[in-house]
Amino acid sequence: MYTGTARPIRVLAVDDSAVMRGVLRTLFQTQEKKLSSDLPAMQLCGVVADGVECLEAVLRLRPDVVVLDLEMPRMHGLDVLERLRLEEPGLPVIMCSAYTERGARATLDALAMGAADYVMKPSDQSDFTTALETLASQLLPKIAALAGAGFKVLSEVRGQTTQQVRAESKLSPGLTAAGSTAAGGALVEIVVIGVSTGGPSALEVVLPKLAEDFPVPVMIVQHMPKLFTGELAQRLDRICALRVREAHHGAEMTPGTIWLAPGDAHMEAAEAAIGHAPGAGTVRNALVHLHQQRSLNHCKPSVDYLFSSAARLYGAGTLALVMTGMGSDGLNGARRVHEAGGVVLTQDAATSAVWGMPGRVFEAGLAREPLPLTALAGELTRRVNAGRVVRVVRNTAATATMPLQRNENAVSALRHEVVHGLL
Asked: For 155, what's the count of Cα atoms within 13 Å in the CB-facing half-sphere?
């Protein structure tokens, strides 16, 4: 986050469109004149027209944040980003994306390569005033949040190979488990995740480590436009053992599927007409419910809607995870989960692009010690398997599986935490 020093945040803008360059110049000139702004001082230290000029300007001007166009002559935005990640790994880069399928796909590629975040180009740049207002509401808060955010730490985590990420399936030695134990040792019946800035690449670290026999449904709210959530679901589906789908209204929530909220609707968990009674030892019959209520916390979809619905339906069987993101969406929902006896986990500051959403939940006392990004999948797996029958796999080529047995170790571990006051 912004360090609070008197020096303005220095921003380098890169775009081949003369109109966009004009919008950006006016945007920062206007921001500099706002004496009462809640945002820190910002300064447009340079404006260039292509990727080659960008690389030269970064070395010459030493900006704090780069706003980078994707489609440019001489050097594509993704090629520029690749060079910057190698040469300036701690420099946050915000991609400027067109609202098209091609733009969505390229933006997700950029986020996977280490871009800090993205903004949407104004759809009607001929209406200068509207374009200015639209860009200001998106871009300026993100620059403020990302400047000086310790981005180098996160970029190092993102730089791991898929094989490395999938191999790290256990908690680090000596790591204190986060959250509070479910009331009465209730089985986890649902995992709900809320994430925003830095979320797509963070999800690509966590979700591929969940096994194909993960015993409960997973529901995710990622703050993104509709076109982008569909592309993100397809991208995650290709790298995960579980199915990843963009949610649709009335979908049956069964284990083995991760439901990603569409970018134009709120998503909740709703009980089906006929369901399993609590305590029956199976996951109850529930459906995805999408609706068009007003935006909450300026967000649609909103994490608060999802978390609150899970707390109502599953009570102590809810396991909620708040990951990297700006703002406070998810705070009230996490409080509902906590009050219902469920467990709330948070990602730590060091591996978050912005420690806004998880930080607010932690500071409210709704979760214990935050967990690093690479430990989250292991903790989710440990908690959902506690008290369940799990399949044990021998680490030999001769034997693929062992007979099913009760996961007493996980149960004992949670009981130990309760008895000794760890949770």
From this structure: 23
CA 144 from chain centre, in angstroms, equals 18
H helix runs in 300-367, sequence order: 303-314, 331-339, 357-363
C-alpha 236: how far from chain center: 13
Kindly list the distances between the CA atom of residue 413 and the CA atoms of 105, 215, 238, 246, 371, in Å, as whole numbers in the listed order.
Answer: 42, 19, 34, 35, 18
Give the CA count within 13 Å in the CB-facing half-sphere of 249. Answer: 6
| H-state helical runs in 34-87 | 51-61, 77-87
CATH superfamily of the 9-157 domain: Response regulator (3.40.50.2300)
Phi then psi dihedrals of residue 408, to 5 deg: -65, -30
First vs last C-alpha separation in the chain: 29
Q: Kindly tell me the sign of the dihedral angle through the C-alpha atoms of 185, 186, 190, 194.
A: negative
Residue 304 to residue 330: CA distance in whole angstroms: 5
Neighbouring CB atoms inside 10 A of 280's CB total 10
φ, ψ dihedrals at 284, nearest 5°: -65, 160
Domain ranges in the chain with CATH number 3.40.50.180: 171-419
Beta-bridged to residue 47, according to DSSP, are 13
Cα 385 to Cα 174: distance, rounded to the nearest angstrom:
20
Domain 171-419: homologous superfamily in CATH? Methylesterase CheB, C-terminal domain (3.40.50.180)
Q: Which residues are catalytic?
A: 196, 223, 329
Q: How many CB atoms lie within 10 A of CB 287?
A: 16
- Contact of 284 with 271, CB cutoff 8 Å: yes
Instruction: Going residue by residue through the chain, which has 423 residues, state the pLDDT in tens, using 9 for 90 and above.
Output: 334 446 899 999 999 999 899 999 999 998 888 765 788 899 999 999 999 999 999 999 999 999 999 999 899 999 999 999 999 999 999 999 888 889 999 999 999 999 999 999 887 656 778 778 888 989 999 999 998 554 444 444 444 433 343 344 333 333 334 444 444 578 999 999 999 999 999 999 999 999 999 999 999 999 999 999 999 999 999 999 999 999 999 999 999 999 999 999 999 999 986 544 444 445 578 999 999 999 888 899 999 999 999 999 999 999 999 999 999 999 999 999 999 999 999 999 999 999 999 999 999 999 988 999 999 999 999 999 998 876 554 443 433 333 334 344 444 444 444 334 334
DSSP percent split of the chain into helix, strand, coil, nearest 5:
40, 20, 40
